Structures are given as C-alpha cells and as structure tokens.
Amino acid sequence: MPPFVITVARIGFIVLLWIFVFTVVGVIRRDLFAGARSSRLVAAPRGVGAVLGNNKPAKVKRGRAAHQLVVTAGQLAGTRITLGEAQITIGRAEDSTLVITDDYASARHARLVPRSGQWFVEDLGSTNGTYLDRAKVTGPTPVPLGVPIRIGRTSLELRP
Amino acid sequence: MTAPPGSASTPAPTGELPRVRVAARSRRNAELALLLLAMLVSAAYAATAEANLLDTVTFDFWVPIVSLTAVFLAIHVVVRFLAPYADPVLIPAVALINGLGVAFLRRLDLSKANPDERADLTMFSGTGGRQLAWTLLSVALAAGLLVLIRDHRAISRYAYTLVLAGIVLVITPALLPAKYSQVNPESDAKLWISVGGFTIQPGEFAKLALLVFFAYYLVRKREVLSLASRRFLGIDFPRGRDLGPVIVVWLISLAVLVFQKDLGTSLLYFGMFVVTLYIATERVSWLIIGLLLFFGGAVLAWYLGSTIGGPFASFYTRVDIWLDPYGDPYGTGWQTLQGLLGLGTGGLFGTGPGAGQPTEIPEVHTDFVFAGLGEEIGLFGLSALLVVYLLIIERGLRAALAVRDSFGKLLAGGLSFTVCLQLFVIIGGVSGLIPLTGQTTPFLSAGGSSLMANWLLVAALLRISDAARRPVDSASPARPGGAPAGPPPQLHGATTEVIRP
After folding, report:
1. Contact A95 B89 (CB under 8 A)
2. Which residues touch A104 (CB under 8 Å, ≥6 apart)?
3. What are A30-67's pLDDT values in tens digits?
4. What phi and psi, each to the nearest 5 degrees, are found at residue B34?
5. Contact yes or no for A20 and B488 at CB 8 A
6. Cα–Cα distance between B32 and B303 in angstroms, integer?
7. CA dihedral for B267, B270, B273, B274, sign (positive or negative)
C-alpha cells in the first residue's frame, strides 16, 4: 500500500467519525424542534378525550374558554397544563393528572371537570379542603378565569 | 397496540382532542440512515487497519462488519414494529461503538497472529470473532427484551425478585470455591464465575437488577425522603432515620470493595443509588452526603490498606500506582504507564488504524481498550468516540425527562447515568485521573457479559423512550370506551406529567 493511500485512509476515518457525530447531532436537533410543538403538555389521558368530544360546540359558543391551568404558588409554581376535554385530578397520588407534593394536600384532593365548556372544581373529600378564592368548595363549583383555587400551599388558576 | 409508523403522521381525527395535533414522527428512517453510516465508519476502520497491518486489504475484511450490519438491521426492524417511537439515535450510536470494538479486537488478533497465518483468520476466531458472536447474541437478547416487555412499567413488578437475584449475583463470585471463580491475576479481584470454560461476570447483570429495584423503591419512598428534612447551612438534609437505605447500599458497596477487591464496581453501585436518589428527591444534600460517604470510605480503605493490609492491600497498591506511576515502572506501574505512553504516542491524530502498537499494553482488549484505540485514532478520534457516548447518555436522560411515569423517569435516568459513571471510572483510570480499577468500557471492550448487559440496558432505554415520545392520543390502551356521557371514571392507569418552566 502506498503511504499516500494510508494517510488518506487514516485522516478519512477520523473525518468520517466526526461526520457521523454531526449527523447524529443534526437528527437530534431536528427532533428537538419537531418536539417543541408536540411535547406540549396535554392533560387528556389516553383514550378518555373521545368520551366528552361532543361538548365541543357549546365550548366554542362561550368565547373565552379556559385553555390552560397554571400553578401560581407552591412547589410547582410555574407549571402549566394545557387543558383538553378530560377532567384533571389533583392530589399527591401518583396517578393524578397534576401530582402536587404538598404537605397539606390529600392523595386525591380535588378535581376539575369540564361541563359544556365550563370547568367545575370539586373537592374529593380532602382533609384540609379546597378553596375557590376565599370560599370553601363543597359541591361542584364553576371556576371563573383567573380566580385562584387553593389547595394546601398550592394555588392554581385557569387562564384563557 | 401500535399504529404503523407510516400512518402516524396524520393528524388526530377532528373532535377528539383538537389541541393534540402532534407531528408524531417516528424517525425510523433517520435511524436506518444513521445505522448504515455507523457501519460505514466501522468498515473504514477495519479496511484501514488491514491496509496498515497486512499491507493489503483482503477480500473478506468486510465479512464481520456486514454480519454486524445484518444483526443491527434486524434489531432496527424489531424496533420499527415494536417500539416505533423509540429514540432514533440510540441504536446507531451504540452500533458504531460496538462495530469499532469488534474491528479493533480483530485488528489485535491480526497483529498477534503470525504474518503467514494472518490472511486466513476466520470470522469467528480470536477475540474479535468471539466478540462478534457475543454481539449477535446480545442483540438477539435485546430484541427479546423488546418483544417480551411491551410496557416498561411491567418491569417494576419484578423489582424484589430482581434485587434478590442481583445480590446473589454480586456475592456469588466471592463465595464460590476457587475452582469456579476466576480471579484477575493483576488486581486480585474476584468478579467472574467460571463454569466449564465459560466465564460470566455476574456483576454486569446485577447492576441492571439493582437499578430496577432502586427505581421501584424510590418511587414509593421519595415523598418521605424529600419532604421530611432539616435545614442546615441552607441545604435541606434528610432526617437520620431516612438515611437507612443509603447506609445499607453504602455497606454493600464497601463489602464489594473488601471481598471482591474491586473499587470500580463498588463505586458504580453506590453512585447509581445516590444519583437515583437525587433524581427522585431533587435534593442536592443527597449528592453531598453520597460524595462524603464515598470519599470517606475510600480514604478509610486506603488508610487500612497502608496499616493492616489484608483485603485492603490491593486498593492501597492501586492508589500508590495512581499517585506515582513511575515509582515501579517495570512492575506494578507497567500497565498504567504503557497505557499513558500509548495515548501519548497517538497524539492529536493518532498513528492510524493498525499502525500503532496496542499489543504492548497488558489487558488492552478489556480494561485498556481506550488507550489502545487512542494510540491509533488520536485525540480527535477519541473525542469523537466520547461525544458518541455522550449522545447516548444524553438521549437516555432525555427519555427520562420526557417519560410520564416516575418509575420510567428513575429507571431511564439511572440507566444512562450508569453508562456515564462506568465510562468515567474506566477512562479516568486509564488516563490517570483516578486510581485505575477494572471496569469494562461499555460496548467497546471484549467480554460477553458486559456486552449483553449493556445491550439489555439499551433495549430498556429504547422501550422507555418509545413510551416517552409516543403521542398521547395515538395508542389508546384497551379501555372500555363505551361510557356515554358524564365525567370519565377515575383514571387509575393515567400517567402524570409535570413540566417545569
């Protein structure tokens, strides 16, 4: 083998190795931007959304519907959940939609249920209670936009 | 269960979940292209090595590479059907490292063989051939895992069985009579079970089993561990009684250190636990406690080694070599020095595949594969290799971030961190950053157990990343969808997801 060929092969191998690295990075990069939209948080658990699908027209009529649930205070402050058509369970239990690690919250604390485009908050028999602004929630209560729901030290708000 | 990848890119039917119009792309074609590129790189290495060693490229240099390509394509097809949304980067990156490993080991065989016998080194002969056979077996095992486990959460059911098996696996080599347990002549470490010509390194499998248990345990206990705490110096420290599990694992890893005389494995187990604990609780204090405990233990072992010797003596020797490799250049320091010299000879661009003298380094096919490879591909090649490892780890952590259940998060985070820590231990040892301990370089160094365990690890990561990247609305689990109106029933199986800003 002429030394020239060997030198070319040797350098070529390293170049090829780096081409591989950059191709991989390119794939990851494209993945990142494709995922920016798809990884948006959707609080609808699998397969449940279809059940409530027929409520949609009523929702459109109302105009300013809630689209997001935002945690405004507590450990999870800043968390946003995009609202789907399914209910949102809140509590310390692992299978809740929003798992809050709050000493004053019960395992299954409260839930938010959409009915005809309006979200209702409902206490699930929690120990320390759920408050809508200042009032204790006893039955299903409609939640206006921007009014804090307080659970322990956590506060949540519906946003458009 | 899974939608065919082709139809996955169509938007969700209207009315179902209007805002979930996910660009659900499985990226399997990208994986295929990357895989072929990876095998091309391996083939380039094999060809250049032959050109340098034999002064000609034989007609069948491509046979091992092509058989590797075939088996990697097979797992690609398995993934296409069984985990269509799995991360597209994992398999090609692992395939590249595995392919380079096989090619490098074959290159070692070539340089060890007599010049006239070199041309007829068959496909499965020598270390390289055995590594090739092990790769085929490992990939088959990984595919089997993907077939068997369709949902990673199912693994958590066997957590206690697995931890029992893991502990048995860890202590077996230390307890077996000398006839069945092979001892590494240099380090005096007891890590292998040898039965009828086969040697198994059970610790490699034990690490996976232990990790599953850690993840399972911490999912259950993390509230206690992260909520109850005392604040001291601005850091939340856990209560004394919650330290129990950490102390137990610390004791186990110290026992590994003492009885098997293997610092690397002990560091690996302990580090795995501390990091899973950190991921579960998000408390920096665990990392601080872990580091303090480990360094305390290591210093203690070193001190005991210098005074009473006994089981700690070999660890003391290792530290001695690390502190002064030139102290006994022809004796204990020989291996480390040869490795360092190899890396130094390689320089920036390396001597070229096949043109170095990696056979000068003892154990170049296992512990020192990084130094041997470094001599030939130089700093530029090695850093590319390290970046590939980094990307594998990054993809694993990414899957951990994206997956929606806590067990999956902890398992994926722990698995990718294990690869990371193992790399750090062995490469740090080879390059003289930390005392050398015998760990295998994942996917690269010769050894069936390590290869199998690491491919199983990759299969687990593929499974988790598939669950993480699968669009929420595409695959609905078997759930009775007949309930007409009213709020849906309690969602026991629903996954949780919390994203921090």
Report:
1. no
2. A128, A151, A152, A153
3. 877 654 444 444 444 444 444 444 444 444 334 567 77
4. -65, -40
5. no
6. 53
7. negative
Residue A124 has pLDDT above 60, yes or no: yes
Cβ proximity of B70 and B13 under 8 Å? no
Please say whether the beta carbons of A142 and A118 come within 8 A: yes
| Residue from B351, B333, B328, B288 nearest B435 by CA | B333
Q: Chain B residue with minimal CA distance to A24?
A: B89
Tally of helices (H runs) and strands (E runs) in chain A: 2, 11
Question: Are A21 and B391 in contact (CB < 8 Å)?
Answer: yes
Distance, CA of B400 to CA of B414 (rounded, Å) = 9
The pLDDT confidence band at residue B176, using thresholds 50, 70 and 90, is low
Task: List the end-to-end C-alpha distance of chain B, in Å, as a whole number.
Answer: 33
pTM: 0.74
A85 reaches B (C-beta below 8 A): yes
User: Over the stretch A70-87, which tens digit does the pLDDT of each residue have?
Assistant: 888 877 777 777 777 778
- How far, in Å, CA of B393 to CA of B420, rounded? 7
Indicate yes or no: CB of A12 within 8 angstroms of CB of B471: no
E strands along A50-92, which residues? Answer: 68-73, 80-82, 88-91
State the best of B97, B497, B500 to mutate against chain A, taking most chain A CBs within 10 Å.
B497
Residues of A in contact with B393 (CB under 8 A): none
**Pairing assessment for the beta strands A118-123 and A130-132 based on DSSP bridges:** unpaired
Q: Is A107 on the interface with B (CB under 8 A)?
A: no
Tell me whether A15 touches chain B (CB under 8 Å): no
The tokens of B200 are what? 């198994």
Number of CB atoms found within 10 A of residue B248's CB: 11
Instruction: Please give the pLDDT value at position B181.
Output: 57
